[in-house]
Design goal:
Blueprint lengths: L1 H10 L6 H10 L30 E9 L5 E9 L4 E8 L4 H15 L4 E4 L3 H4 L1 H10 L2 E4 L9 H13 L9 H17 L11 H7 L5 E7 L6 E6 L11 E5 L4 H11 L1
Parallel strand pairs: 1-4, 4-5
Antiparallel strand pairs: 1-2, 2-3, 6-7, 6-8
């Protein structure tokens, strides 16, 4: 019931209280108890450090499943540890190191370059091609200890959600169908699914609430008209974008910038 209440309250903006949502939840016979599994008591591992800005640390991992005809396929999942945002899910029968590099480059084109990426000790991640690419891009590959997936807990928790809410809900007939449903599910995960680790808000809401109080002016150069279009937005963006120039201005200086904008136009 918790996710339903947070979805209606934080995502859709309804003012229903918890008791009203629970009454409807109970009338629909959705309050079925889940028998907890018996777990062994273990020492609690140290918590992962939470990055203070986007693109400080990414996490990546592979998953496996099968098509309806029995052929196995793999998924390559990438998230940003800062706001648990799913950056991409690549689906194919085989995902070697070159495909991993291409997937990361596509994400970097719109997201910006990370400082480090956390991963396990899989063959694709230990490949010389991936290591050489990371060194060229000045991206640090942080490998976890073998046999300790809890050291990559953020993406492991993301994988559990992927398995429960996407992979186990569909029977795929082709790779194209799996990739299409993955893209749609990922948008819903980032924009509409409350994340308990973020206090019941979505990853995109986490990114929006952390927006800088400074004004971000984006100057986009148009290659066809050789003129500049200027947009004033409020967004938390620390990525390196190759297609625009980001200039931070204090609110008090915006009036002076507006005068300059009229002179440029």
């Amino acid at each position: 019931m918790g996710l339903c209440f947070l979805y209606l309250r934080n995502v859709k903006g309804f003012g229903y209280n918890r008791k009203r949502v629970y009454r409807v939840y109970r009338d629909l016979v959705l309050n079925l108890g889940i028998k907890p599994k018996r777990r062994l008591r273990r020492d609690k591992p140290a918590e992962l450090a939470v990055p203070r800005q986007i693109n400080a640390m990414w996490s990546m991992d592979f998953m496996h499943d099968k098509l309806s005809d029995g052929r196995g396929f793999r998924t390559f999942n990438v998230i940003d540890d800062y706001n648990r945002e799913g950056l991409g899910i690549e689906v194919d029968l085989s995902l070697p190191a070159l495909r991993v590099i291409r997937s990361l480059e596509r994400i970097i084109e719109w997201r910006g370059k990370p400082k480090a990426i956390r991963c396990d000790n899989g063959l694709e991640y230990l490949s010389g091609k991936l290591v050489a690419w990371a060194n060229k891009q000045r991206i640090r590959l942080q490998y976890i200890q073998p046999g300790k997936p809890q050291q990559n807990a953020y993406v492991e928790r993301f994988n559990r959600t992927v398995r429960h809410e996407w992979l186990d809900q569909h029977l795929f007939e082709s790779i194209a169908q799996a990739q299409d449903t993955a893209t749609k599910w990922l948008w819903n995960y980032n924009n509409e699914r409350p994340n308990m680790a973020l206090g019941g808000i979505t990853p995109i809401q986490k990114l929006t609430r952390a927006a800088s109080p400074l004004l971000l002016v984006v100057i986009i150069n148009c290659g066809t008209t050789h003129r500049s279009q200027i947009f004033l937005i409020r967004i938390c963006c620390t990525s390196n974008c190759a297609y625009c120039l980001c200039v931070f201005l204090l609110p008090s200086s915006f009036l002076q910038f507006s005068t300059q904008q009229q002179a440029w136009s």
